[in-house]
Design brief:
- By secondary structure, the chain is of the alpha+beta class.
- It is built from 18 helices and 21 strands.
- Strands 1-21-2-12-13-3-4-9 form an eight-stranded mixed beta sheet, with helices on one face. The protein has a six-stranded antiparallel beta sheet with strand order 10-11-14-15-19-20. It has a three-stranded mixed beta sheet with strand order 16-17-18.
- Strand 16 (about 495) and strand 17 (about 500-505) form a beta hairpin.
- Helix 12 (about 275-285) crosses helix 16 (about 465-480).
């Protein structure tokens, strides 16, 4: 099972021991995949930190306890709603090395996806630490060193391996064995993986965290870690150099904003495709009375799936790093959405959907495996952050003597026209490999506001299904007025255009599936689709709320 199915969260409102009835959680909330990470975030909040501090504390702890999904060897999109109402979008996405070339993964004229998914060539320059450092210095209330020490202590003392981590280690043990540092730290001496309940101690990771705490992020980007990575790359046929680390710069982006039935939707801009296409699909769906169609009805699923096809066709053609490719702002215009909505036939599925061209495509442009966690505090500061090293354990490469596992984000580029990546996505020239370029992502950290006040922070893990999961959470809460618990429990479906199949959860009734097949949909029934998580604020109850995907078991707290 892919890494993203293990990324879950659960939030519990704390109940004062002297009260028989639950009291609203009024101070803040932390939602992550793992109880230890949630507790680190909660401790930051309860010690005077804000939602940014809580998010960073949680992120660093996840590096220790959930390394299959995220870490300092990867990247993130960090969306912050500040207490004054303004938004900050910090792009800590990984970046192709300076020696990268368009055809670097071609062998005998064909793309070799093994090279883009495993080992040295799969690795892009990581940006997560740069994002966390910037967020801490500019928007947090605690020093980054404090959060690093909390995570380092956990790594040094050890923790019990979770069933989810044990399962991923077992699944990928053979690949991890190929790299000595990964094998030494992540497997037993005989090559067997750590089992659930084993105590795992990571002294080298603790040492790295403490070195960053003492010396700052320059230890990572300009000092010993950059040098160690460059040396390993040189010895193993990689391209990343010390200069690539030194030249890495985070990007501050302008969030994508749209409205949907009285709510303001704030998402992440390119190189995220999530913000653009969540907004685009919502704009298309405004032309339809979804409430009348009924939640989960074949008519509802059909219309939403058709809108997904249209958006993913545009994604494949237009989306890429805005510093290298022309990404039209018109993709999120209401007029363009109305134009696309006319293509949807309520009775018949479309096949072979091609991209369209929004107005201003030539000159009105965006300026040049995964976990999601959300935090919020009573001051009005909210965070939606999605972090990743791409597939489970990334490239499977751990830099010797550092404990830091590296991403395989180069696989998110379009390696060759018509060649699908790990997630089945096919891209065009806009997402071709280039030196210093950031690969396209589906990560979709999103915040919803009503009457100017934040009411929902939502995101997901699951490759391209991140977009559909985030979208469906919004539709079920806004169109059907569902509480977030029910919204995340509703059956899911996903269509990304290529392959031409509607992936749908087995919980969807057979009668509904038959109706969809009559409309021409090619169904692929799956057990579950990804894992979405959200934090909300209930104005009537006066408190924070959150919920984990019922498809798994995560942890979280509010107080």
């Amino acid at each position: 099972m892919k890494l993203f199915y293990g990324c879950l969260l659960l939030l519990f409102a704390s109940v004062p021991p002297t009260s028989a009835a639950p009291q609203p959680a009024v101070h803040g909330a932390v939602a992550t995949v793992n109880l230890l990470a949630t507790e680190a975030g909660m401790e930051a909040l309860q010690s005077g930190g804000n939602a940014v501090d809580a998010a960073i504390a949680a992120a660093l702890t996840l590096n220790v306890v959930d390394p299959q999904n995220s870490g300092l060897g990867g990247g993130c999109f960090f969306l912050i709603r500040l207490r004054d109402g303004s938004f900050v979008a910090i792009d800590g996405r990984e970046e192709a090395p300076g020696a990268a070339t368009r055809d670097m993964f071609l062998r005998d004229g064909k793309a070799d996806t093994h090279l883009s998914q495993f080992g040295a060539l799969a690795i892009a320059v990581p940006g997560a630490l740069a994002a966390y450092d910037h967020a801490s210095r500019h928007y947090g209330q605690m020093p980054l060193a404090r959060h690093l020490e909390t995570a380092a202590t956990l790594a040094a003392n050890g923790f019990e391996v979770s069933p989810a981590l044990s399962a991923r280690l077992k699944e990928h043990a053979m690949d991890l064995q190929r790299f000595p540092a990964s094998r030494a730290l992540m497997l037993h001496e005989n090559g067997t993986p750590w089992m659930a309940g084993d105590r795992w101690v990571q002294p080298t990771l603790a040492k790295s965290f403490r070195a960053i705490a003492e010396n700052g992020s320059s230890w990572f980007y300009e000092g010993p870690f950059a040098s160690a990575t460059a040396q390993w790359m040189k010895e193993n046929g990689g391209l990343v150099t010390a200069a690539d680390f030194k030249n890495y710069q985070l990007k501050l982006r302008q969030p994508v904003r749209t409205t949907y039935r009285g709510f303001e939707i704030v998402g992440f801009p390119p190189p995220s495709s999530g913000g653009v296409h969540v907004a685009q699909i919502l704009n298309i769906l405004e032309a339809f009375d979804l409430k009348r169609l009924g939640a989960g009805s074949p008519e509802f699923i059909h219309v939403v799936a058709e809108a997904m096809k249209l958006a993913f066709a545009d994604r494949a053609h237009w989306l890429g790093d805005p510093g290298f490719s022309n990404v039209p702002r018109g993709l999120v215009s209401k007029e363009y959405a109305r134009q696309l909505a006319k293509k949807i036939d309520l009775k018949q599925a479309m096949h072979g959907v091609e991209h369209d061209t929004p107005a201003g495509a030539a000159d009105d442009l965006f300026s040049k495996h995964t976990t999601h966690f959300s935090t919020a505090d009573a001051s009005g500061c909210w965070v939606a952050c999605t972090a990743t090293i791409n597939t489970s354990f990334g490239s499977k490469v751990m830099i010797p003597d550092t404990g830091i596992l590296m991403n395989n984000e180069m696989d998110d580029f379009a390696l060759q026209p018509g060649v699908a990546n790990f997630f089945g996505l096919v891209g065009a020239e806009a997402n071709a490999v280039a030196a210093g370029k950031r690969p396209l992502s589906s990560m979709s950290p999103t915040v919803l506001l009503h009457d100017g006040k934040p009411v929902l922070s939502v995101g997901a893990a699951g490759g391209p299904t991140i977009i559909s999961q985030t979208l469906l959470a919004i539709l079920y809460t806004v169109d059907f007025g569902m509480p977030i618990q029910k919204a995340l429990a509703m059956p899911r479906f996903h269509h990304q255009g290529q392959p031409d199949e509607l992936r749908i959860e087995q919980s969807v009734p057979e009668k509904t599936r038959r109706e969809l097949q009559k409309r021409g949909h090619r169904l692929v029934v799956v057990g579950s689709l990804g894992a979405a998580q959200a934090v909300s604020f209930d104005a009537k109850a006066g408190g924070f709320n959150g919920v984990s995907d019922p498809r798994g078991a995560g942890q979280g707290k509010a107080f």
